[in-house]
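Notes taken during the Thursday session

The instructor put the following on the board and asked us to keep it in front of us for the whole hour. The protein is Mitochondrial rRNA methyltransferase 3. We were told not to look anything up and to reason only from what is written here. First, the residues (425 in total):
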Amino acid sequence: MAVLGECACWATRPLLPVVRTWELDARRWVRALRRSPVKVVFPSGQVVERKPGPGKQPRKAAAETSPREQRLKQSRQVPPSQTPSTWEESGLRYDKAFPGDKRLSSVMTVVKSRPFREKQGKILLEGRRLIADALKAGAVPKVFFFSRLEYIKELPIEKLKGVSLIKVKFEDIKDWSDLVTPQGIMGIFAKPDHVKMTYPETQLRHTLPILLICDNLRDPGNLGTILRSAAGVGCSKVILTKGCVDAWEPKVLRAGMGAHFQVPIINNVDWEAVPNYLPADTRVYVADNCGLYTQAQAQAQMSNKASDCGWVCDRRPLQFHKYEEEEENLESAANKGWLPELEVQSYDSDWTEAPAAVVIGGESSGVSLESLQLAESTGGGRLLIPIVPGADGLSSAMAASVLLFEGKRQLRARAGRLSGDGSRH
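Then, after some discussion, the predicted structure tokens were revealed:
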């Protein structure tokens, strides 16, 4: 039995290392089969390099790559639309409004009220185009409310530093929006100063020596349309006297379609201070039909409607800023010497020889006595746009457009005559 045991032990001892050696050799062969050679040397001595397949890198090269290089390579592989590097590198952060957050409602209450708006010196701009125009012109943003982060990323990064960014629900913006289809972004800006604004270079190159004075305009839609016409013509500036609707009211901004950031606007000016904003030798012209009363007393009929076309006045009472309570009519005012005697001339007569300022009256109250006095003192007059007898007069916005573009036509025609090539004008 002892002999058998020794034989058994002797027979089993050499088997263990043999099995282990075979297993190790087998693993080595499998690993060798999986490897792809970098270089192949043929018997002739020719060396051929083989590049690894797509997505495969040598383990040694991957190990030698630093973590920083790996992160850079991964960021390059991400599509540009999903790369937040510019946003994060700029250090911008935004807050997410929580349920019951009152920041949006409290700000909207302020900017939608003119007294609070003037006291706080802030305005509300809504929509990506209007906000982009304001930023380009140099307006200073304070707070942005937006429903999607993409709307903020579309704006210039350098203009957003120091601005409070608050992400809110679209339903909250819709509740406070004045637009039929809200665009999901609102901006609170400091009230722009026309002196500090940067207007488009093309606008500055086409500026004309024509200035517009809005006198007691109270309709937001009309004022916004007038500002668009002033920007389209190339007015040097627009002056809004006291009694006009606020130029920065949301409805005026919406009707202006960006004109606020294309032409200088001077808001809420006293008539005594208006001459300070006029260039030297400026002549002031009043756009109304009051001259028809003195010229056509023999006519049997005149229009009885001045409410729809405030720049036109007839026998009905002419409202003056200083005499609104007395409601003196045109005839008694003329007898008392309140009305200056101004020459009435057709709108297409040459009235742009010197720098000109055109006064547009309000829809309901017409032009003021102060505007007539200023026109008389500067050697101006009344500009008459003839219309069919008995027809309702033009609106303030339409009258302003007709006169401003007529002034531009006259300036272009004069420039053509001076250059000796007036045919193309």
